[in-house]
Design goal:
44% of the residues lie in helices and 15% in strands. It has one domain: Rossmann fold (3-Layer(aba) Sandwich), CATH 3.40.50.1820. It is globular. The strands form two sheets. It has an eight-stranded mixed sheet, sandwiched between helices. Strands 7-8 form a two-stranded antiparallel sheet. The longest helix has 24 residues. Strand 5, helix 4 and strand 6 form a beta-alpha-beta unit. The protein is an alpha/beta fold. GO terms for molecular function: acyltransferase activity. This is Poly(3-hydroxyalkanoate) polymerase subunit PhaC. Keywords: Acyltransferase, PHB biosynthesis, Transferase. Pathway: Biopolymer metabolism; poly-(R)-3-hydroxybutanoate biosynthesis.
Length: 356
């Protein structure tokens, strides 16, 4: 500490500047009336327990559009509206604007009564029923399936079990190999005593998982975020965008205890997916059974699902039409960054149209 020298004049300037930014942030926050998310109009066409199946009709004024319906499966650990966070940053809005009829699974919020729901319930019951409802509602014989993050992993399992029901498969920021050296989240999950956790909590609190995610980048998501907060709030529009993201981050459903235990053990701890060792509801999950076209979208800077965890998919499926799309963004940036908005919706639409 002998070489530490402080410049009083610079400190005074920085404090004055910070005070002005805080005052500006205060004024910006006063202008924010409502933190609205998921603004695209939809119809609920099916419900089961906590689950809702949402239908977003595609723009009928578009002549050249994909006729096969698209079902989007989001992760259980977060809410689906990340893909419709705000009109200017909405993957969902971009898809339906091209005429794509889109369906989204809203998993809802598990309660104490859902403690014993397992992956058999989520995949062979809920997801399978949603696929059947989409085919019935649309009149299609098969559907396109898009899975995001953990939802992508569930979609892989589903497509392996029911390959004839899925025409084209898209995975986004989806973990496949859970034991790559740079997968920090997986390293953390390997030390979870799942029996003890579920015994103590029943359902795993969403707040607990949020703390685990923040622990992966403690400075950036903790101290640095607090210090930089005035930069996110220097206008009403920027403040609203920031608060929408915060709302999504902290809107974390509790996790059904049994499903959580199975997912952590089979995928994170035992890495059974890449070895075709998973059996769900008596049905084997063999990725080699996936022979339909596959588009694998990943974030180059994803700290939750690094590229090394997603890319092995190409060697595990039996598809002659397997493609990847790298997005120069992080886990969430794949959906909301300006660069992703220019690239991802167009890439998905064109890829599906070519295989319709």
């Amino acid at each position: 500490m002998k070489n530490l020298k402080l410049n009083p004049e610079k400190i005074e300037v920085e404090l004055s500047d910070f005070k002005q930014k805080l005052q500006k942030s205060y004024q910006a926050l006063k202008e924010v009336q409502q933190i609205d998310v998921a603004q695209s109009e939809y119809e609920v066409i099916f419900t089961q327990d906590k689950l809702r199946l949402l239908y977003f009709p595609g723009n009928r004024e578009v002549d050249a559009r994909c006729k096969t319906p698209l079902l989007i499966t989001y992760a259980l650990v977060n809410r689906w509206y990340m893909i419709d966070l705000e009109p200017e940053r909405s993957l969902l809005k971009s898809l339906i604007s091209t005429g794509q009829d889109t369906y989204v699974i809203d998993w809802g919020y598990p309660e104490a009564a859902d403690r014993f729901l397992d992956l058999d319930d989520y995949i062979n019951e809920y997801l399978n029923n949603c696929v059947d409802q989409v085919t019935q509602h649309s009149g299609a014989s098969s559907i396109n399936l898009l899975g995001i993050c953990q939802g992508g992993t569930l979609s892989l399992c589903y497509s392996a079990i029911y390959p004839k029901k899925i025409k084209n498969l898209i995975t986004m920021v989806t973990p496949v190999d859970f034991h790559t050296p740079d997968n920090t989240l997986s390293l953390l999950a390997r030390y979870i005593d799942t029996d003890l956790a579920v015994s103590a909590y029943g359902n795993i609190p969403g707040e607990l998982l949020n703390d685990a995610y923040k622990a992966l980048m403690p400075m950036r998501l903790g101290v640095q975020k607090s210090l930089d907060i005035s930069n996110y709030l220097d206008s009403a529009q920027k403040a609203l965008s920031f608060l929408r993201m915060e709302k999504w981050i902290y809107d974390s459903p509790n996790q059904a205890g049994e499903a959580f235990k199975q997912f952590i053990r089979w995928f994170f701890q035992e890495n059974k997916l890449v070895n075709n060792e998973i059996i769900i509801g008596g049905k084997p999950v063999n990725l080699n059974a996936i022979s339909q076209p596959v588009l694998n979208i990943y974030g180059a800077y994803d700290h939750l699902v690094p590229p090394s965890a997603s890319l092995p998919l190409g060697k595990l499926v039996n598809s002659n039409d397997y493609q990847t799309l790298e997005v120069k963004a992080g886990h969430i940036g794949v959906f909301v960054s300006a660069k992703a908005q220019r690239i991802v919706p167009t890439a998905i639409t064109e890829w599906l149209m070519q295989r319709d």
